[in-house]
Task: structure prediction
Amino acid sequence: MRLEPGQVAVVTGGASGIGRGIVDALAARGLTVVLVDVEERQLGAAVAELRERGVTAEGARVDVRDAAAMLALADRVLAEHGRVDVLCNNAGVIAARRPVWEHTADDWRWTVDVNLIGVANGIAAFVPSMVAAGAGHVVNTSSMAGLCPLDGGGNAAYSASKHGVIGLSETLRADLDEVAPAVGVTVLCPGPVPSQIHDSARNRPAELADVGPIAPPAKTTSMTVLEPVPAEVVGGQVVAAVESNRMYLLTDEAIAPLARARIDRVLADL
Result:
């Protein structure tokens, strides 16, 4: 689909990092942007900055884990604007690095609820209006960790949730093919991007506090040896993927051989 003024985009995790890069790229095309985030101060600052630049921007402090809150947000956006053309399910977190068997139940619950259930909640809230309109595009943020294991380990909950986003996105594509084939789907699989995701614990709910073993120092992994890609570059890549209706989007071509190696191992065993 062609991105143009008059359209409306909703971006979760939109106040910083990849989400903010996507917001800026969409705003540059003239779209009205609705930033969704749990961090109220950053959200307010981002919306104020965008408005100072003449962008039509709104902020909504919503936890993507809350299905009812996401549905209420969709009702509000549709009541005010009458449409949602682009949905970017981008909010994500990562727990402290530790072996799989040392991840606590709360590590799993928090990570999966934000990274995977949050995407499902966004789809349930906003995609019905796209189906009814027969147009729109959904961008779900996964990770290169959803395509291949990161050597060095320690990120099982994160990796599992990101694999889930890819499976969910592929199934969404199949479901939409039956009823609204013109609604596009892109699954974004970034490598390293400068952001605050490794400080995710600042927004971790008290009832899911980290009480696991102290994580050892981070090891060098296949992700850390890649060159970071700035968030504004990723935003531009997302805009291009939406307009070309691209299903899978990598932020760095160096990720492809790593994903291919995993697929080759699977095929060899099959």
